[in-house]
Design brief:
single chain; 4-stranded mixed sheet; alpha/beta; Trna Endonuclease, Chain: A, domain 1; 12 helices; two-stranded antiparallel sheet; 2 domains
């Protein structure tokens, strides 16, 4: 028997709309399948037949008979289902309170309200500091275009990119030399290392610059990938040539992409993850930012529910 208090039960029942006899939008069939998938129990067995035998009453009996860990597992899954299905709109505080109940049932230490407030304050402070740093980098970005010395502009771009990747905790490495070749830098994302190249030319880059970078990547390992930062993008012939023949091992980030990241339209990590996915799934080296933004938006709206 779980040790849900009367108040905790009231909160869960209110969030799930159980006063009607239902539980969220489950039918008898989907509720039966969901409970079995989550807790390995047959909710329509006689042991849970309480009162009218409605879904809500069977869940109440489930609470009465099962242990904390079993109830915590099922309720956690139901809360996740409800949140992803949009059932808890305008019920954020109640949903948060019920999530804390589930954490307690599972034996997870529930942070105190004071600790939670401190965590939120610390997160907000970190976000402010990041925004301030991005604003400064954005100023540096605009100065690149005004710099008459293009060599200096190139070095400044490398520094800007390094500072940006460092700001997002991607462990960037500054330029270095390997067996006679210059590497502008590298970074780490989700355990994988990517080479970096940055060019600040006043024109769209030709195929030759990309082939040199491709050679640097292919000279490392079969799983090495890269990001080419081309401030003024690459030429149309280069776009065509770089995807012909061998599969591409890098993608291009242009000045507009960089400006959108510095302007906090998208986070650097979200940008990289989606571009890496498009490179892996479709071999896309160049993706217009408007298209990428739509891709990110669609991804966020996709339900992450297993088939019930």
């Amino acid at each position: 028997m779980c040790d849900l208090t009367g108040l905790e039960k009231q909160k869960l029942e209110k969030l799930l709309g159980m006063s009607s006899g239902y539980v969220l939008d489950f039918s008898n069939k989907t509720f039966s399948e969901f409970v079995f998938d989550s807790a390995g129990r047959d909710i329509y067995s006689e042991r849970y037949n309480y009162g009218s035998g409605s879904k809500a009453n069977r869940l109440r009996e489930f609470w009465r008979q099962e242990s904390n860990d079993v109830v915590g597992k099922l309720m956690g899954d139901i809360l996740e289902y409800g949140a992803e299905g949009g059932h808890f709109k305008d019920k954020e505080l109640l949903s948060e309170s019920c999530t804390r109940i589930v954490m307690r049932l599972k034996g997870i230490q529930v942070p105190s309200e004071t600790a939670k407030t401190e965590q939120k304050d610390e997160y907000a402070a970190q976000q402010r500091l990041r925004s301030e740093a991005l604003a400064k980098l954005k100023e540096d970005f605009f100065q690149l275009h005004a710099e008459a010395d293009r060599n200096k502009a190139g070095f400044d771009l490398e520094k800007l990119v390094h500072n940006l990747f460092d700001l997002f905790g991607l462990k960037p490495r500054q330029s270095y030399r390997v067996t006679g070749e210059q590497i502008d830098g590298s970074f780490e994302l989700e355990g994988n290392v990517y080479l970096l190249e940055a060019k600040c030319e006043g024109h769209a880059l030709p195929e030759a610059d990309l082939l040199i970078f491709k050679g640097k990547i292919e000279g490392k390992s079969t799983f090495t990938r890269g990001v080419f930062v081309a401030l003024n993008d690459i030429s149309a012939p280069a776009r065509d040539a770089i995807t012909r023949g061998k599969p591409p091992s890098f993608f291009v980030m242009n000045g507009h992409d960089l400006l959108m990241i510095l302007g906090e339209v998208v986070s650097l990590t979200d940008f990289l993850k989606h571009r890496i996915r498009l490179l892996g799934d479709k071999g896309r080296v160049c993706v217009p930012f408007a298209e990428l933004e739509k891709e990110i938006s669609m991804h966020k709206k996709e339900p992450h529910l297993a088939s019930r």
